[in-house]
Structure prediction request, 209 residues.
Amino acid sequence: MTVFADRRTAGIRLAERLAARRLPEPQIVLGLPRGGVPVAAEVARRLGAPLDVIVVRKVGMPGQEEFAIGAIAFGGIVVREPGVEHYLDGLPVSFETLVVRQQQELERRERAYRSGRPPAELAGRTAVLVDDGLATGTTMLAAVRAARQGGAARIIAAAPVGTSEARERVEREADEVILLAEPPGFMAVGQFYLRFEQVADEEVIRLLE
Prediction:
């Protein structure tokens, strides 16, 4: 089973794979906050490309917040997990209400990470979207749609590890999906890292600077 020491190490290995692909210029690397940004920073360094964030936010199942039933991204992008109504059956909350709650956090992160800077220009560029792992592919799919809406010429979704189901789902909308490993028995992204601490806002801001 592939196990990475930490996000930085995983980013270095992913960067080598991406560099070997000789992706079309100009490139921009976009990390998915928060865990994808340390990985993306290594990719941007190796490719010699600018680094920015593409802010997405998971919509979690009430009471099981780590279980994604959807995702949102800046620009009004909303992705629903198939069968989301089944998950919410019997609960006094709608998917739309959950989206509104997460929208507030999405806007807070946009303000915090950009410090007044506008989003990076994507038109005509190869956008490399990087996360620390793809479990369901929901948040990456939201990022792909946001990058497409932003006018990216080519979209590469990349992560050190992920499920084959997530890869197939994202492949339907990205131009290419690159994973270093698609291990069986995938329960959570963190099981493939020796160190998988939560990334703080301050760390994201430092890497972007």
Observations:
- The chain has a mean pLDDT of 93.
- The longest strand covers residues 64-73.
